[in-house]
Specification:
rod-shaped
Length: 160
């Protein structure tokens, strides 16, 4: 037992010394040399970006529906002007709901100019959002369609 304890201590000493010899020198021991750290750059394969066209069949169909509903709203808005010119009473004879856009007795040119501006604005907004990969790109077209169909319904119920 007496010989085992010194042998174990000598073995532990040499194991520790052999591991320490694999360590780099301390910075104080290497005064003249600069320490360099090599950065490892991960290798990344080529990224495949799917380039879907901005204008496709879905975009065109939504734009068509939005434009058609906008022009139907403008067409039915002219019913109020026609009733006013004919001198009808008991039906709408002035634009009430969107007088700030059309005026109280809109002309045909103004009605279709407003429709063109509304339609072009919603299509441009949808195009811009789709080009920048927003998942809400169709929202301007849906909102324009909903507002225009509500206007068409209102005009048909009160002015026809």
């Amino acid at each position: 037992m007496k010989s085992i304890i010194p042998t174990v201590l000598v073995v532990l000493f040499f194991v520790g010394a052999s591991q320490a010899s694999e360590l780099p020198d301390a910075p104080s021991a290497v005064a003249g040399e600069a320490m360099y750290v090599e950065a490892v750059v991960p290798v990344v394969g080529p990224q495949v970006i799917e380039n879907k066209p901005v204008i496709d069949a879905k975009f065109l169909s939504l734009a068509f529906i939005s434009t058609a509903s906008t022009f139907s709203d403008s067409y039915t808005t002219l019913f109020a002007t026609q009733n006013w010119r004919a001198g009808k009473t008991g039906v709408c004879n002035a634009e009430v709901q969107s007088a700030y856009l059309y005026g109280t007795h809109p002309t045909t040119g103004r009605v279709y100019a407003v429709a063109t501006a509304k339609s072009a604005g919603s299509i441009f907004a949808a195009y811009y959002l789709r080009k920048h990969h927003s998942k809400f790109w169709s929202m301007p077209l849906f909102v324009n369609t909903a507002i225009s169909l509500q206007g068409t319904t209102q005009n048909m119920m009160s002015c026809n």
